[in-house]
Amino acid sequence: MSVVDEAPARPRDCAGFARFWTASTVSGFGTYVTTIAIQVMIVLTLHEGAAAVGLVNAARWLPYLLFGLVAGVLVDRARRRPVLVVTDLGRGVLLVAIPMLALTHRLSLPVLMGFMIAFGLMSLFNDAADQSFLPRIVPARLLTAANARLDQSGAVAQTCGPALAGGLVSLLTAPWAVLIDAVSYLVCGVLIAGVPVDEERTGSRSVRGIGREAADGLRWVYRHPTLRPLAFNTHFWFLCSAVAGAVVTPFALRTLGMSPFGLGLALAVGGLGGLAGSLAATRLGSAFGAGRVVVSCRALTAVAWAVIALAAGHLGGWVLFGLGQLLFGLALGAENANELGYWQAVTPDNLQGRTNATRRSINRSMIVIGAPAGGLLADTFGYRLMLWCVAAGFLAVAGTLAASRFRHARIGDVVTQPVATAPL
């Protein structure tokens, strides 16, 4: 593990952060292209509804449910940079196959789901290593600022990516637009390979002890006085988000009559909100504390989805849809850096992989449950009704987190009292 000998004043002063930031930005652009392209492909190319969108989303996150805890243990045992490089390159190669199958008319819903399962397995290991890698190149006191920088570039990608995706889908068709993301993952892998960090294996190569080590990660998350309420609350946040993700694309394309390019532009407005939120995230966290910022942002998320549910199929409705996306992006941008910074600051290095994999795996398990269920309910009872249910769910999420100890959480309180070991 690398040791920070000096005291850099900004994240960009930390060796390797610039390459890590660049890789994240490149990958972010491609990811937004594929997010829209895959969903448009399901609705317009495969002629499926919200239930199919939910099934593909569930397939993407199924590996998190099945292998998440094991992945966290393996990442904590391994050097994290090679894990990032291999999984980025692997996902790039995998995505190249989608337009090839479309060209030969062999792309179907089951085939696409199979690809998403394989893609999700590689993403599982990449996610566990990615968020565990950042604390090795950035000191704890700069983690909120570092996450904010990553969110800012991600918000720029979200602003430009959807509009680019809509144009590419209209010009090239959805399967070929996926190639953009394939190239971005290949570039990302090369960039990460050049990040300077001194890493050594920290655990055994044997399968023995995996269960005990996984249990250590679970205990850290669910026994910690402030991480426990945050973890449970975030699980339900992802359940609501999964329903929303299955409904929003068919709602926009079919109920509101938007084109793929129009949908991309509307989602790009969310990127502008995300950029504004991430620019303010560090100052908000310093002024009010991570806990209060996260609670407030989750309440704003409820408002955002209520605005989207009000949209109707005319110009005024499209404006409401875009406004809802703007508010949603603003909430995510301000919340994410504070939430992730707190997780990373409070967690010891030897538990970073397990902690990240544990919470992300259960979060993504909520998608496996919520996406197909939400899509099926939306096809049965209507898209708008489900969006109102989503708004109500996010409001309940904000209220329960506000009633917990997490609302008092501040990263400054953590870095002044470093945690050396986990309470096992």
Task: Kindly describe this structure.
The chain contains 14 helices and no strands. With 424 residues, the chain is an all-alpha fold. The chain has a single domain, classed as Up-down Bundle (Growth Hormone, Chain: A). The protein starts with 16 loop residues before the first helix and ends in a 9-residue tail after the last helix.
CATH superfamily caption = MFS general substrate transporter like domains
Helical content class: over 70%
Kindly report the average pLDDT value: 82
Assign the CATH class.
Answer: Mainly Alpha
Alpha carbon gap, first and last residue: 22 Å
> How many domains make up the coordinates?
1
Biggest sheet layout: none
Oligomer kind = single chain
Uncertain regions spanning at least 5 consecutive residues: 1-5, 415-424
Please write out the topology:
Blueprint: H1 17-45, H2 50-77, H3 80-103, H4 109-137, H5 143-172, H6 174-193, H7 210-223, H8 227-255, H9 260-288, H10 290-309, H11 315-346, H12 352-381, H13 383-402, H14 411-415
